[in-house]
Every structure is written in C-alpha cells, then in structure tokens.
Amino acid sequence: MFGNQMNPQSFMVDPPLEYVLSIFTRINAYDLVFVLTAIAFNLLIAGVFIAQKKERPKLVRAFGALMLSLAIPLAIVFINYLIVGRDLWIMVYFGFIFLYIIVELLFDFILKIEFRQKLILHIPYIILEYIALFGFIGISFAIDPTWGYLVSISFWILLASLIYLYWDKIKRRKKENK
Questions:
Q1: Is this structure's pTM higher than 0.90?
Q2: CB 46: neighbour CB atoms within 10 A?
Q3: Cβ neighbours of residue 21 under 8 Å, at least 6 residues apart?
C-alpha cells in the first residue's frame, strides 16, 4: 500500500466509544446538568462521610458547602422543567430536594444545631435526605436509563461511604452483643 491511500474505516469511531459519546448527546443540556449535578451531589455527600471518618472538619465543611452550591444548577433546571411542563411527580421530587438543601443549610451552616444527636430532629432529617436522594435517582431514570444507573451507582458509593463512617461502631456493637 502507498502512504497516500487511506482506509475509510480508519475514521470510524469504535462502537463502545460511540455509545459513551451518545450518552452525552442524546439528552438535552438541562437534563445533562441535572444528572451530572445528581452524581456530584451524591459524591460530595460521600466525601463528607469519608472526611468525617478521617476527622477533617475543614474538608467536611468544604464538601458540604460545595454540595449546597449545587442548588444553583438545580434551580436553573427546575425553572426549565416548569417552563416545559415536566410531570408533577418530578416537580414534587424537586421540592423535596430543595427542602433537604434548605434544611441542611439551616442546621449545619446558619443555626449550627447539633441535630444529629437529637433523634427527634435526626430521624426526620434522614427521611428527608433519602427522599431527596431517591428523587435524584427517579428523575435520572425518567431522563435516560443509562443516566439513572450512573446516578444509582453514585448513590451506592454514598452508602458505602456511610458504612465506612460507621464501620467501627458496627463492629463494636457486634462484639458487645456477643
């Protein structure tokens, strides 16, 4: 073969790469912002848990502040969803997500309440948190199943970091119960 002759096949994108690229191009920009924000939200909470375990309060605060700042892209997406008339259940989930962010802001950053030590506050907080996290997953699946699974994976990473945070306490309680 001579150097000037090219094979048209050499310019084709590999099918796996083509699929990966299509994940980003088959949804609109607002949906893409939502799913990327959902993944970041979960991973930042996971970062908070790991930083708590490592006793790094400045890192906990930084991850928490970054997580709260995700309210900005979420608000932009929410406004777009209102304009285009997305389903009511999606808007309800957004309500829970925003409520969770507001509660987090109030308890941890403004009032600085040690609410995690008070079951009467902590249990409703946990319920609200998981409703919001499930909202991220549900909306992501409504956008695109692949993104739904990616957001779910980030949620499972969050759960693994939560187990890591409490692993010593879990092991201690098992030993005490024997």
A1: no
A2: 22
A3: 13
Contact 99, 132 (CB under 8 A): yes
Give the position of tokens 């309210």.
Answer: 71
To the nearest 10°, report the CA torsion of 81, 84, 85, 91. 0
pLDDT one-digit tens code per residue, 150-169: 999 999 999 999 999 999 88
Whole-number Å distance between alpha carbons of 35 and 87? 17
Q: At what angle do helices 29-53 and 119-143 cross, to 10 degrees?
A: 140
**Gap between the Cα atoms of 90 and 78, Å rounded:** 9
What is the C-alpha to C-alpha distance for residues 63 and 74, in angstroms, rounded to an integer? 17
